[in-house]
Description:
The complex is a heterodimer of chains A (about 425) and B (about 300). Helix content of chain A is about 65%, strand content about 5%.
Amino acid sequence: MNKILLVIQREYLTRVQKKSFWIASLLGPILITAIYAIPIWLAMQDKEVKRIEILDESGLFQAKDLVDKEVEFKLVNKPAAELKASFSKEGFVAFVHLPKNIVSDSKELKIYSEKNLSLPLKSSIERVIEKKVRATLMQQAGIASEVYEKTQVEINSETISVSSTGDETSSSSGGAMILAGVMGMLLYITLLLYGSQVMAGVIEEKSSRIIEVIISSIKPYQLMLGKILGVGMVGLTQFLLWIVLTIGLTQVASTFYGSSPIQQRVEQVKKADPEVAKTMEASPMDEVTKVIESTNIPLVLGGFLFYFLFGYLLYSSLFAAIGSAVESTAEAQQFTFIVMLPIILAFIMAQFTMQDPDSTMAFWASMIPFTSPINMMVRLPYGVPMWELATSMVLLVLGFLGCSWISARIYRVGILMYGKKITVKEMAKWLFYKG
Amino acid sequence: MILSIQNVVKRYADHTALAGVSLEIPKGQIFGLLGPNGAGKTSLIRIVNQITAPDEGQVIFDGEVLHPKHVEQIGYLPEERGLYKKMKVGDQLMYLAQLKGLSKAEAQSRLKDWFIRLDIKDWWYKQVDDLSKGMQQKTQFIATVVHEPKLLILDEPFSGFDPINANMLKDEILGLKERGTSILFSTHRMESVEELCDSIALINQAKVVLTGEKEEVRNRFKKDEYAVKFSGELTNSSAFEVVSIDAEQHSAVIKLAKSNGTNQAISALIKQVDLFEFKEVIPSFNDIFIQVVEETK
């Protein structure tokens, strides 16, 4: 036991003392913060208003119909051929040609631009024209414009989850999906990252030929276990650093955001007009708050740690077995695919689980030990029956024990095998070697 | 006996590495384990080190059946030896010493002694990557002996050593023997056997084919042959037979007609030639090795 601790200590310290560990630990939160902060920063920049020329042959449009917050329209009355040649020289992004019979046949609408038109701009133009055409059609059908205006409602639902005891909590489907996606992604990356670190460590010991000295002091399975646990602790340390640094950095970023002119203006508008303030509440930040309120944070966090730990233990023991059978990272490639396949499969399944967390596929994906870490983490924010969670956890632990037994048997033979091309069939034989 | 190997069998999927090997290795000696490549030496050493277990038979270490606790009383320098390249020499040796059961403080003080002894005081903070091969070999040797094992197992210890380091290693090995360490020394270099070993065992094709005390083994392979120097004409006689002759050098090897018949041979010789030199041919371990391996093929 004492010796396993020594191995854990060495594995942990040699990795934590490396520069690359600290670079990854610092860059991670900066990247996460950047992903969160850059859209806000971009939103703070004044958007450039795009200018569009419109030639309206139908005579339907007046200047007041052509209002959009991102696009400035200018009605012109010149021959189409002349406009085609001149619009870009006069600083217009595009030139829109509305045909005479736009109301009856909208297919004739043509937009000319120098560069490819961006999709949002195209839909902005179409939206403005659509609105007017629809209103005209309504009028022709005898529906008064006031009636039409009244029918333009937008529905925003509030989702509420009700527990069996009747407790109601405001839930957030969008937020749960984001949380699920982040969890799944994080597990996927870390399983691959730390699993291959274990493999590289085993290959290093074998190729540098220190292995025989080490296993004359401790049993191979002790060395394997110590290595896996040591690297796992490096992973947990990195998570901890990421969490602490991300929280720190987002605090800094949000103080900056809070004191920005935009935020001040938003506050002013809220004070002046409570109605506007209400709609402004539905901002992304609000969604985040809602997720935090509606999810069982200790359960999700505990679940994440559990599924990271056992998922990692299961996969890294397989990675260790592969590392033991080969002599170089290049040679390992053909075998790593076998182990990576279930991780990739689990990640693909997770995309479907996210869409429908209660489907039969999602159920089985979150039960089978190879796919359950990622898929159960994706299901967890949506709420999972306790018995399913418990079964999945027990199965994962059993899966880990089975895999580590197999791996340990391959490992003890593999680490002493040199100068031989190993096949999967060969590795299967090692399982039955004695002592 | 420090080590008593009793009828050990080790089979792998496609071959038998050890087919009932029995050996007695006395305390305080340097015991040479000889044999051609693939004879089963490394398999036997791995069993003694408890890296693998025998399929049959057992090993008695210092009066007790071999047990995991014994790894702390054995030092092992494998033929394929290496170090963690990205670790500092001091850290690495501390790690290896502690794995052999030394406490942190003990490991530190003993290592410091060794660093002074081998005159490598300023290596402690050097990374292994920056060491020359000879320096790495010194480091590996310290790792093998720092826990003061009762039994030292050296597998081809001189391979890759330059003459200076080989000499240092030889002195250290003899020093350890003097302080009571038993040494199991595996090699196929016969000159180091002649120089260092007290007893030997020769393994070929998974079996012990020859074992015994060095001089006794040598005597067993004497063929009653004598090297002679002379002037004159040498021919066969009733007392001896000429095995080979070099007329230019005036030397020859003769084989006596019967053992202990040296006096008869000499009197027969001086009748034929002027005799300058008469010396027994003592077989080298190289010859013994080749002869036995050929015979047991």
